[in-house]
UniProtKB/TrEMBL annotation:
Heteromultimer composed of HisG and HisZ subunits. This is ATP phosphoribosyltransferase. Belongs to the ATP phosphoribosyltransferase family. Short subfamily. It comes from Oceanobacillus limi. Its EC number is 2.4.2.17. It holds the Pfam family HisG.
């Protein structure tokens, strides 16, 4: 098996991803919860793991800096990158929603939408034929409707706690999100056996 580079999203799903890789037989000795290291090799030196911001994983894979990426569907949809999505890993389950105050969608001909996902927001409202202005934020998006900066937000909801604690409600439910395995198109053509072997091992680990 040739060496393969896997870009792993940092953050809330990284522990589940590492556990899955371990169940599939890939062990990384020096991965600890609070490590600042960014590059890891498995014991057999078949996989080089690079730890990157979730939002950047599709870019690393599209550009060929990584053969494979493990990242949420939210970031895949937002990036619109040219790559293959091969496997649903089923963890990191959440959903895209439009949320706001109860009155947020009433009597407005044009909406201001705050989001970490402006492309997803734009696409959703375009499909509905509603013109919007997007405001790109990088976090604490729930604040925007509370302070009058936006009418609504498009964001991911997992437990619903952040919306609840800020007095916001779900106004529309959009796509279901989970962690996916993505592959660089050229790598899939040149390292087909290696990638298929890797995917098969992960599938078996998921079933087991
Ligand atoms: C995400 C998301 C919501 C929250 C939803 O933010 O943007 O704010 O989690 O989770 P919940 O439904 O379980 O409350 P994240 O925690 O990544 O923080 P951020 O605001 O810094 O982006």
């Amino acid at each position: 098996m040739a060496l393969m580079t896997v870009a792993l999203a940092k953050g809330r799903t990284s522990n589940s991803s590492i556990k899955l890789l371990q169940s599939a037989g890939f062990h990384f000795d020096d991965i600890e919860d609070n490590t600042r290291k960014l590059v890891f090799y498995d014991k057999e030196r078949k996989v080089k793991l690079i730890s990157v911001k979730a939002v950047d994983v599709p870019t690393y894979v599209e550009k060929g800096a990584a053969d494979i990426g493990i990242v949420g569907k939210d970031n895949i949809l937002e990036a619109q990158s040219d790559l293959y999505e091969l496997l649903d890993l089923n963890f990191g389950q959440c959903k895209f929603v439009v949320a706001g105050l109860n009155s947020s969608l009433q009597q407005r001909s044009r909406l201001t939408v705050a989001s970490k996902y402006p492309v997803v927001a734009q696409n959703h409202f375009q499909r509905k034929g509603i013109p919007i202005e997007t405001i790109k934020l990088n976090g604490s998006v729930e604040l925007a409707p509370l302070i009058g900066m936006a009418d609504v937000i498009v964001d991911i909801v997992e437990t619903g706690r952040t919306l609840r604690e800020n007095g916001l409600t779900v106004l529309e439910e959009l796509d279901h999100i989970s962690t996916r395995l993505i592959v660089n198109k050229a790598s899939f053509a040149t390292k087909t056996d290696t990638i298929e072997d890797f995917v098969t091992k992960l599938k078996k680990a998921l079933e087991g």
